[in-house]
Amino acid sequence: MAPETKNFKEDILFHEFNTTETDYNQRGYHLEVALEVNQVRKFAQKAYDEGFYLVFVTGFHVLSEETAEGTTSGLNGVYQFARYDRLYRIKGQVSVPEDMSLPSICDIYQGASWHERETRDLYGINFEGHPNLKPLLLSDEDRDFHPLLKEEKKLKSLEAVSWTPEALESVDADAKAPSSDSIDS
Amino acid sequence: MKQYFSEIYTGGKSLVEGLGVTFKALCQPIVTVQYPREEIDITPNYRGHIDLVLDPEKNTFLCISCGMCEKSCPSDCIKVKGKKMEGEKKKTLVLFELDFTKCSLCGTCVEVCPKDALEYSQEYNLAAFSREAFHFDILKRLEERRT
Amino acid sequence: MLESDFQKQNRFFLNMGPQHPSTHGVLLIVLEMSGEYVLDPQPVLGFVHRMHEKMAESRPCGGFMPNTARMDYVCALPYNHGYVSLIERKTGIEVPKRAEYIRVITSELNRVASHLLWLGAYLLDLGAFTPILYGFDDREHILDILEDITGSRLTYCYYRFGGVYQDIDDKFVDATRAFIQRLRKRFVIYEKLVTKNIIFIKRTENIGIVSPDMALRYGMTGPNLRGSGIAYDVRKNEPYSVYPEFDFEVPVGAQGDCLDRYMVRIREMEQSLRIIEQALDRLPEGPVRAKVPKNIKLSPGDCNFAVEAARGELSYYLVGDGTSTPYRLKVRVPSYSNLSCLPELGRGILLPDLVSILGSFDLVIPEMDR
Amino acid sequence: METISILPPELIRMLIAVIIIISFLFLNAIMMGYLERKIAGHVQRRPGPMEVGFHGILQMVVDGVKLLGKELLIPFNVDRTLFRVAPLLSFTPVILPLLVIPFSEKLQARDLSLGLIFIVSMGSVNVMALLVAGWGSNNKYSMFGAMRAVAQSIAFEIPILLSMLAVVLMCNTFSLKEIVGAQQKIWFVVLQPVAFLIYVIAGVAETNRAPFDLPEAESELTAGFHTEYSGMGFSLFFIGEYTNMFIVASVATVLFLGGWHGPNLPYGEYLGVVWFFLKVYFLLFLMIMIRWTYPRVRFDQLLNFAWKYLVPFSFVNILITAVLVKL
User: Fold this and answer.
1) What gap in Å lies between CA A148 and CA C369, rounded to an integer?
2) pLDDT tens figures, D82-98
3) With a cut of 70, which residues of chain C have pLDDT below it?
4) Is residue D320 part of a domain?
5) Best residue in D143, D220, D222, D305 to probe C by mutation, most C CBs within 10 Å?
6) Interface residue C169 vs chain B (CB under 8 A)
7) Are C352 and D44 a contacting pair at CB < 8 A?
């Protein structure tokens, strides 16, 4: 009864991108796609062509880093897609460059329009090509106030919040040994 | 043409049936309760704001002022203060305040309490003219219940 | 016809809301109109924006529980459910079987309550006053049942990591069974009063047709999507909790108009009752709460959990950083995506039809604004 | 004709009648308001007003006093003249038709030979009030309400007239008294069931009652044409609406339900009023029940309903009546 994911070969659909298969039982989605800024629209178009729907667009804020291409802004854009007909979730993640802009996908997925406006409100990511990037959840006076940007001292590096099997095990070890004062049922 | 008349028939029939439902309801007894005049008994599991448990034997609170509730409260609305009385080993509770304007009734404080010294009150008729009226002094409430 | 010169010259704006009777709370829709035709409806959100996602980042994960109920206060338990399941998936906590059954029963009861409220509110939008009181009458029974075990009536905080707050008793089981019997009888009344009513059918049939492609582009989920004929239900497609153990159908509509969305919800209530009945029959014995560490640590990395709320797919997306506080918690709420199709759907329709469409979407504004 | 000579002069008679009718009009509004709330309450399985007086019987009086005490707010930027005139305009024309309605054989202020025409023409003035109110309010919602009211009134005037005409054809007179007189043996509802149905449906629409309450349509237009009114301005509209309902119901009683006819009572020529009122309030009860049962129709559906269903049916009905009368 539960839709079998093994029979489908969705992972090869996105072979042109930098994909990693993930454990659904631990992460809640099947495929992680690491995107470059210029791949975002291509990725969305591919997802649309293959019949995925847009779950959400959002972001999160980490420490900016020096990379070969230059300094990152520290912001990450997250796109999640899923399917209506079977169980398959994919997540695309892209590091926002220093000019704080990402290409808009709202002409491919019209539903992305509101998600992008919300992300601009909360993080200040500028979605290029969005026809109407007005504040949605926040008011017009708060155009330059982005509540979800973290303070400097609370920021962590991207590695510190990225999934690694080891990190899980280390926390697991704490969790698997409940301390004596744990709550009884 | 046939559709025209059948639509009138089914439409008219549905309207009469609808009228039948409301007419039947008109003749049935009412189901509401005239609130300030009558009241429904509230379930004993109702979770109102917190109260200190009154120990019937010692006629006092069970709280050891450990401050677990204060720490665990997601809304920071509990204030507990204990004081070491002379000649006693443990701290005695001297202040227990609840800022009910912030409380979201999640019950974390009750569950986290190591001595089960907190309970839910059954009060739901909470209305007042000022914000300060909801800064409850839980300890005082206990004193009032004391025999 | 809509783009005639006359209409181009005679456009005007009408503010529908935030205190309009049929925007259900505080939603503003700026309508560009020509006569009674709506040319461009633009929703304006954020009147009850409370930044729940920031709150989640500022307290340990257990402290966010009461917030989840306050996003969608009409159907709070699935929001609880999604959040506890997310943390359980993240930390690998095993939940006792009995607790999962109780979660399913209470969530489904809450879903029925939400649909009953929607039924009344929708008819109120269409101008019929009485069904909302009948809906409230039935809903009140559910609230009483749930109050008895959860301790609150609307913004429940009943589930806990690894279980539920307290076990259900025989009184709950009997009351629920009695309620199911009662509601099945009441469906007959709703059918006579509403479903078959010619005026109601005329107001909803062929109004606001959402095509499957449009639903996909906007990411619509829940009954609004199923009305368009796509049988997507998170409970079936992405089974969580103990839903795979129950036999239930996913009702779908034919063409995606308001009447289809209405019928889907009505039939969904019947399916929910079926689930509750099966769960009550097979309710296993055992503990209702697993042992969980007092200080739950969220391992680094992200995690997603989707549940079916009354209005559609609710996704929690969590980024952990090794502490007990979420580094980032995104809540994907169904109504947000559902409503975003309004500018396209509401182009060139009459004002009463817009009201009918808004009602059929079953919006809860605090859920969208978060 | 002897009785007329011993009556006071016609003018005094009319004055008394007008005073009685105006006071009755307020009483009717109070009663209808109470009935509507009570029936709505019980239809929805709740008690309705319960607090003021025995079972809330004084609730409407208290509300009336409250409305009297309220300030008549005049919003900025409205057309002040039109805004003030509109409530009066909705109130006055509803008094006049009551003058020609025969409550019983002897209880009639004035028996016009063209009574029916008079009532219909006064009924059309009422829509003028809605238009003036909507236009004068300088509010888009009010304007929508006013425009709907006009279109609706035009569409439903025709079936009303045609269904009346069927009765007029049968008894060859426009005088209401004579129409009632013609129903001594058999009520016209038996002979003209289609005309009766058409008249009641169109009458509900004419009085802007649910499910045809489009000019108000509070889920679409907040409150339609009276959005901006408060205090007495609002209550005059309110009284106007209830009186209008009363007129529609009493005309239906006169035309189809045999007016004051019923089982014999002592002083029948005066006490026939009991039967008259029973019939009128039965119809009003029906109208209230309809309001609390059905959803509102959409605007174009309403017009379609009038032109595609009511008008053809009333034409056919008239044709058949004419042929049968001629035979």
Assistant:
1) 15
2) 888 888 888 778 888 88
3) 1-9
4) yes
5) D220
6) no
7) no
φ, ψ (nearest 5 deg) of residue A44: -65, -40
CB-CB under 8 Å, B31 with D46: yes
Which tens digits make up the pLDDT trace of D112-150? 778 888 888 887 888 888 888 888 888 888 888 888 888
- Which residues from chain C sit within 8 angstroms of residue A27, using beta carbons? 301-304
- Residue A170: pLDDT band by 50, 70, 90 thresholds? low
Contacts for C281 with CB less than 8 Å, ≥ 6 apart: none
Question: C65 and B106: CB-CB below 8 Å?
Answer: yes
Structural domain includes residue D253: yes
- CB-closest option in D41, D47, D289 to B23: D289
Asked whether residue D25 is assigned to any structural domain, the reply reads: no
Give residue-wise pLDDT tens across range C308-317: 888 888 899 9
- A178 confidence band (pLDDT: 50, 70, 90): very low
Is 80 exceeded by the pLDDT of residue D311?
yes
Residue scoring higher pLDDT (D271 or D145): D145
Q: Where do the structural domains in chain C lie, given as residue ranges?
A: 5-369
Q: What is the pLDDT of residue D53?
A: 79
- Rounded-to-10 torsion of CA C274, C278, C281, C284: -140
Q: Which CATH number fits domain C5-369: 1.10.3720.10, 3.40.50.10710, 1.10.645.10, 3.40.630.30?
A: 1.10.645.10
**Rounded CA gap, C279 and C245, in Å?**
9
* Distance from C-alpha of D223 to C-alpha of A94, rounded to nearest angstrom: 50
CA D279/CA D271 separation, integer angstroms: 14
Alpha helices, DSSP H, located in chain C: 5-9, 52-56, 65-69, 76-91, 97-125, 130-150, 170-190, 198-204, 212-218, 223-226, 234-237, 258-281, 334-339, 342-345, 351-360, 365-369
pLDDT, tens digit, for every residue of A70-119?
Answer: 777 778 888 888 888 888 888 888 888 888 888 888 888 888 888 888 88
Written as one letter, the residue type at D182 is A
Number of domains in chain D: 1
Question: Which residues pair with residue A53 across a beta bridge?
Answer: A82
Q: Is residue D23 part of a domain?
A: no
Q: What is the pLDDT of residues D167-215, one digit of tens each?
A: 888 888 888 888 888 887 788 877 888 888 888 888 888 888 878 888 7
Assess whether the previous peptide bond of C366 is cis (omega < 30° from 0): no
Q: What mean pLDDT comes out for the span B117-138?
A: 84
Position A177 scores a pLDDT of 45
Q: Could you tell me which residues are beta bridge partners of residue C31?
A: C14, C41
SS (H, E, C) C50-100: CCHHHHHCCCCHHHHHHHHHCCCCCCHHHHHHHHHHHHHHHHCCCCCHHHH
Residues in chain C, overall count: 370
- Taking CB atoms and an 8 Å cutoff, what residues of chain C touch D219? 21-22, 124-127, 355
Asked if the C-beta of B26 comes within 8 angstroms of chain C's C-beta atoms, the answer is no
The verdict on whether omega for the bond into residue B44 sits within 30 degrees of 0, i.e. cis, is no
Percent helix, percent strand, percent coil in chain B, to nearest 5: 35, 20, 50
- Nearest partner of C256 among C224, C232, C233, C231, judged by Cα: C224
Predicted confidence (pLDDT) at residue A182 exceeds the cutoff of 50: no
Q: Does A136 touch chain C (CB under 8 A)?
A: yes
Measured CA angle at D81 (ends D91, C9), to 5 deg: 105
CB of D17 within 8 A of CB of D95?
no
User: CA-based angle A91:A97:A99, to the nearest 5?
Assistant: 135
Give the best residue of C40, C48, C303, C304 to mutate against chain A (max A CB count within 10 A): C304
Domain residue limits at D116: 73-326
- The tens digit of pLDDT for each residue in A39-61 reads 888 888 888 888 888 888 888 88
Closest CA to C190 of C128, C257, C102: C128
| Token reading at A147 | 């509540």
